[in-house]
Write a structure and sequence with these properties.
Shape: globular
CATH superfamily of the largest domain: Bordetella uptake gene, domain 1
Number of domains: 2
Largest sheet: 7 strands, mixed
Low-confidence stretches: 1-21
CATH architecture of the largest domain: 3-Layer(aba) Sandwich
Order of helices and strands: EHEHEHEHEEHEHEHEHEEHHEH
CATH class of the largest domain: Alpha Beta
Strand content: 15-25%
CATH topology of the largest domain: D-Maltodextrin-Binding Protein, domain 2
Mean pLDDT: 92
Structural class: alpha/beta
């Protein structure tokens, strides 16, 4: 393991009794919680924040194991090959179980090789432009795009990323051309929008907020079904008449395929308990993440729908994504 944080448990809150001796004892040893990114950053913070509280709810221990590499492929393979006993879990997210399965040939099946445990939460993406553009709102942006066909470029965090596919969805619905400029990560992509090398992009809200507040980026619209708390005056794309823009940067928990139903139930109920705490909501707000508890079954359907959404877009837009 590259880095581990041992999270010791406190007295648990009572949960419904299970049948079977093994079920009643779970967990009786540390749970490995694989986070598919390097230590530090928003995704790692989410994992550590949630498992610290989850350990208390389960009267158990979590060991956070950062396994970066391959855009989540390394972590996903480790998880799917682990025993399906509830002692190896992974923080899946939109890349590992959404956009990557839709855009690439992977050494795992994001649906068949995993057991969905539950959603943690989600954050919107925000359509932003260079603040120096003569664009004040979304209507202005559409008019400006149509007046500058063939001369507009947008940046993304990489080919096949959510920041890429969300803009392709916008292009599809507006029927206007924009040139995609992929970067190696979100930071350099934002830098070039601010610098005027590209004109627009769809970063996650947490990454964009400091630049929005400084006035260097102008927000025009957000994804999701309701407005973001941090920029309440900015409308959703659904409000503006565009469809299928409920897409979000989401985080959830999965385990290996065929985990025992009783274990999944205990994990799901205790995770929902953790997500309902006001202090967790406050902590996750630093990453603009809204907690969103789901049943295991609902989360499984969510994953399948997300993959289907992006697979259809890739086919419709004839996107050729390498790697």
């Amino acid at each position: 393991m590259k880095r581990r944080t041992l999270l010791q448990a406190a007295p648990a809150l009572a949960l419904a009794p299970w049948s079977g001796v093994r079920a009643q004892a779970y967990p009786d040893k540390p749970i490995r919680y694989i986070v598919p990114v390097a230590p530090g950053g928003g995704s790692d913070m989410v994992g550590r924040t949630v498992t610290e509280r989850w350990a208390k709810a389960l009267n158990g221990t979590f060991v956070v194991d950062n396994q970066s590499g391959g855009g989540g492929v390394v972590a996903s393979q480790l998880t799917m090959r682990a025993p399906a006993d509830g002692y190896t879990l992974m923080q899946g997210y939109v890349a590992t179980h959404g956009t990557s399965p839709a855009t690439r040939k992977l050494p795992y099946d994001a649906v068949k090789d995993f057991t969905p445990i539950g959603m943690i939460g989600a954050t919107p993406n925000v359509l932003v432009v260079d603040a120096n553009l003569p664009v004040k709102n979304f209507k202005d942006f559409v008019a400006w795009l149509n007046a500058n066909k063939g001369r507009v470029s947008y940046g993304s965090a990489g080919a096949g990323s959510l920041t890429h596919l969300t803009m392709e969805l916008l292009k599809q619905q507006l029927r206007v051309p924009m040139v995609h400029i992929p970067y190696r990560g979100i930071a350099p992509a934002i830098t070039d929008v601010i610098g005027g090398q590209t004109q627009a992009m769809f970063p996650g809200l947490a990454a964009a907020l400091p630049h929005i507040r400084s006035g260097r980026l102008r927000p025009l619209a957000v994804t999701g079904r309701r407005r973001a708390e941090q920029i309440k005056d900015i409308p959703t794309l659904e409000e503006l008449g565009l469809k299928n823009f409920d897409a979000m940067q989401w985080y959830g928990v999965v385990g290996p395929a065929n985990m025992p139903r009783e274990v999944v139930s205990r994990l799901n109920l205790s995770l929902a308990q953790v997500l309902s705490a006001p202090d967790l909501r406050d902590k996750l707000s630093s990453e603009a993440i809204e907690p969103q508890a789901m049943s295991s079954e609902a989360f499984g359907r969510y994953i399948q729908a997300d993959i289907a959404r992006w697979t259809a877009l890739v086919k419709a837009q004839n996107l050729q994504i390498e790697g």
